[in-house]
Amino acid sequence: MNGKRITRENVQKKKKKILKVFFCIIIFIVLMISALIANEYIILDKNKTMNLVINNKNVTSNLKKDIIIEDDIIYLSKQDIGNFFDKYIYEDPENNQIVTTYNNKIATIGFENNVININNSQKNIYAHAIKANDTIYLPISEMKDVYGIEIDKIDSTKVITMDSIENEQKKATVAKNSSIKSSTKFISKTVDRVEKGSYVVVISETENGYTRVRTENGKIGYIKSNKLTNQITVREDIEEKKQIEGKVNLVWDYFSEVASAPDRSNTSIDGVNVVSPSFFYIDENGEYNENVGQAGENYINWAHSNGYKVWPMVSNAGEGMLSVTSEIMNSFNKRQELIENIVNSCIKYDLDGINIDFENMKKEDIDLYSRFIIELTPRLKEIGMVTSVDVTAPDGSETWSQCFDRHVIGDVADYIIFMAYDEYGASSNKSGTTAGFDWIELGVIKFIETEEIETEKIILGIPFYTRVWTEDSEGKVISNPAIPMNRIDSNIPEGIEKQWDDKLKQNYVEFENNGNIKKIWIEDLESIKEKLSLISKYKLGGVASWEKDMEDENVWQLIKELLQI
């Protein structure tokens, strides 16, 4: 009897233990479900007055300031527009207005009149910029043309949707009444319900039979893919077509402000796809000048007949341009006047792009020069023009190197051209190479890694010249004239042996002449080949050569082969 009693008690204990474990599991599952629902609720409803959905992404939690809605006008703060649309949005104190750029638009809007200026064309709107709680707000619902967006305000669910009209959009019809879930998990929160026959915006399809969608209420979630039908593409992605397919092979064709464009009729340059003649410049009075004339028009016709694109230079020519350039950069109105002149020239002469070659500028104007490029690029893009900008190596003097924000220029312009020459230039009091390989490669690495510029936007500028350095017996530099590549050998006496410098990747000669020492770091086909190797190594956008008529005639075939043009 005792044995049976003990057995019965053991069974009872086991039953109690099993029930205890079972109830613990149930409680754990309930807690997990509650936690999941709670977490989903926090994620979905971390909103302010309104939810903001931009290109099918709920960005409400990223808003810096509240959305303001007055008289059906939707206002976003300057900070939020900077975050979502234009990181270069700018307050212009000269005219008490906001300047914003996006793709091929530049717009200005003030704080008093219901007017917006888009690409130099004025348009009446129903609101203006306002200030509230020390914050600048812009009427984004009146600026749809600037940012290329569609806006829908859904009052019933407190959602505002903004969709780029350049992005692909697909829609589908709901085949049966369904719940839209917050995730594809077995247990997930219902974020919306859709009825048979309603439409949803298709965002993406998953691998487990679900489709991520946006409902008519602006809610984002998941639905079983088999509950959707009649999927159609409402609009396609609008992709910007590159003017140059493959690598750019540009050559600068310089002639002074008082000379005419060269006559290149009945000639061609093998492999070149862009020419950059020196047509335009700013003079010492800050005036924009054209040096085109009939010779220039003939030059453009010659280039186009050979299939070359024409990106003329715009330079701040001559000495003493530091203050003149600064005055232009420091005025929004003067920048716009210059930009308007450039745009008009592009249209007048049927050009393909522009090469901005501003040098010798004040370090303190670095952001304002960037503003010039930021404001110029959309105007050129609107008319199908390419913007290329010349910059020096990252390390150097204040007015030669530290005046460029290479990151911003490289981000905004179509191409940034690294003028990889004058490592030791005309003003140097020490003899040295014009463009040593090690110095150039270091510069390229800084453009990519430090300045964070997309490699395909970087064009490597190479020299078709070098300098003949003359030093006295004490090693002092007496002269250093620039000598074209095709005349270097005539400056080297017969019998002088060239020495290859494997660090600089070029030949070097040194010899005595009338009691002085001559030093030449030679630019030839060997040195050019080494420089061009950096384009494939770092996947750069191409090459630019300074300047036409200084070259060894065989260099064009070399460039064509190495760049596979």
Radius of gyration: 33 Å
**Distance from first to last alpha carbon:** 102 Å
Strand line-up in the sheet with most strands = 24-23-26-27-28-29-30-37-21-22-25
**Percent in helix:** 25-40%
The CATH architecture of the largest domain comes to: Alpha-Beta Barrel
What is the highest CATH level, the class of the largest domain? Alpha Beta
Number of strands: 37
Largest sheet: 11 strands, mixed
Q: What does the overall shape look like?
A: elongated
**What's the number of structural domains?**
3
What CATH calls the topology of the largest domain is TIM Barrel
Average pLDDT figure: 93
What is the CATH H-level superfamily of the largest domain? Glycosidases
Q: How many individual helices?
A: 11
Query: Helix/strand/pairing class, anyone?
Result: alpha/beta
Strand content: 25-35%
Question: Regions with pLDDT < 50 over 5+ consecutive residues?
Answer: 34-47
Gist?
This protein is 27% helix and 31% strand. Residues 34-47 have low confidence and may be disordered.
What's the SSE blueprint?
Blueprint: H1 2-44, E1 51-54, E2 57-58, E3 68-70, E4 73-77, H2 78-84, E5 90-92, E6 97-102, E7 105-110, E8 115-118, E9 121-124, E10 130-132, E11 135-139, H3 144-147, E12 149-154, E13 159-164, E14 169-174, E15 178-181, E16 190-194, E17 199-205, E18 210-214, E19 220-224, E20 228-235, E21 248-253, E22 274-277, E23 280-282, E24 288-290, H4 293-305, E25 309-310, E26 313-315, H5 322-329, H6 332-348, E27 353-357, H7 366-382, E28 386-391, H8 406-412, E29 415-419, H9 437-450, E30 458-463, E31 465-471, E32 477-479, E33 482-484, E34 499-501, E35 506-513, E36 516-521, H10 525-537, E37 542-546, H11 555-563
Parallel strand pairs: 1-13, 21-22, 21-37, 22-25, 23-26, 26-27, 27-28, 28-29, 29-30, 30-37
Antiparallel strand pairs: 1-2, 3-4, 4-11, 5-6, 6-7, 7-8, 8-9, 10-11, 12-13, 14-17, 14-20, 15-16, 17-18, 18-19, 23-24, 31-32, 31-33, 31-36, 34-35, 35-36
Helix pairs in contact: 6-7, 9-10, 10-11
